[in-house]
Design a protein that fits this description.
The complex is a heterodimer.
Chain A (H helix, E strand, L loop, with lengths): L4 E3 L2 E4 L5 E6 L6 E7 L6 E7 L2 E4 L8 E5 L5 E5 L8 E8 L7 E2 L3 E5 L1
Parallel strand pairs in A: 2-11
Antiparallel strand pairs in A: 1-3, 3-8, 4-5, 4-9, 5-6, 7-8, 9-10, 9-11
Chain B lengths: L3 E4 L2 E5 L4 E7 L6 E7 L6 E7 L4 E4 L2 E6 L4 E6 L8 E7 L8 E2 L3 E6 L1
Parallel strand pairs in B: 2-11
Antiparallel strand pairs in B: 1-3, 3-8, 4-5, 4-9, 6-7, 7-8, 9-10, 9-11
Classes of the chains: A mainly beta, B mainly beta.
């Protein structure tokens, strides 16, 4: 079936605007992760969902960042009042469970100008 | 929660030589240890994983070893080729409530 799908693929936004990034995980996958990756850097953990609940939000950089997951499926990452330092690739991953292979989406490249 | 340390951060090897990347983890209850490869401009993809009931696993030129007592695991790539050039991430998971946690990554460059 289809893999993890993220939209949009690219987003250019003006500083101070809000943005929403969407992740459609693989059907049946209960675990869902959001990561941020700046150019040439590692995977910065943002938030982990198990079903609809988020047992680990420790990676969200500030209260401008929030995420939700509805119906145990689609997840949305919202960044309010975007700043230039928010520019990065935002990756979503899903897995059957946290002890199974995580499949990554293609990412959303966010540029704040 | 789990903490995963990965070394080295960069590794340059001559084509045909072996490459070894090492990771340590903090939670002795972790029982799943995957390795991901991320090529330039692409998403990370699983290349091999190991569970705590085995000590070693091989798949062609790559192998992973696990030492649960010492809480470390390693990735071994033999007969390296230019297409092995990428960033490699280790990860650990399994302890109750613990998410999949990634190491900081190793940038591997295979010189022809």
């Amino acid at each position: 079936g289809a893999g993890v799908s993220q939209s949009p693929s690219n987003k250019v936004t003006e500083k101070g605007k809000d943005v929403e990034l969407r992740c459609d995980p693989i059907s049946g996958h209960t675990a869902l992760y959001w990561y941020r990756q700046s150019l040439g850097q590692g995977l910065e953990f943002l938030i982990y969902f198990q079903g609809n609940s988020a047992p680990d939000k420790s990676g969200l950089p500030s209260d401008r960042f929030s995420a939700e997951r509805t119906g145990g499926s689609v997840s949305t990452l919202t960044i309010q009042r975007t700043q230039q330092e928010d520019s990065a690739v935002y990756l979503c991953a899903s897995s059957l469970d946290r002890t199974f292979e995580a499949f990554f989406g293609q990412g959303t490249r966010l540029t704040v100008v | 929660g789990e903490n995963v340390e990965q070394h080295p951060s960069t590794l340059s090897v001559q084509e045909g030589d072996s490459a070894v990347i090492k990771c340590t983890y903090s939670d002795s209850a972790s029982n799943y240890f995957p390795w991901y490869k991320q090529e330039l401009g692409k998403r990370p993809q699983l290349i091999i994983d190991i569970r705590s009931n085995v000590g070693e696993k091989k798949d062609q030129r790559i192998a992973v070893t696990l030492n649960k007592t010492a809480k470390h695991f390693s990735l071994h790539i033999t007969e390296t080729q230019p297409e092995d050039s990428a960033v490699y991430f280790c990860a650990a998971s399994g302890a109750a409530g613990n998410k999949l946690t990634f190491g900081g990554g190793t940038r591997v460059l295979v010189k022809p």
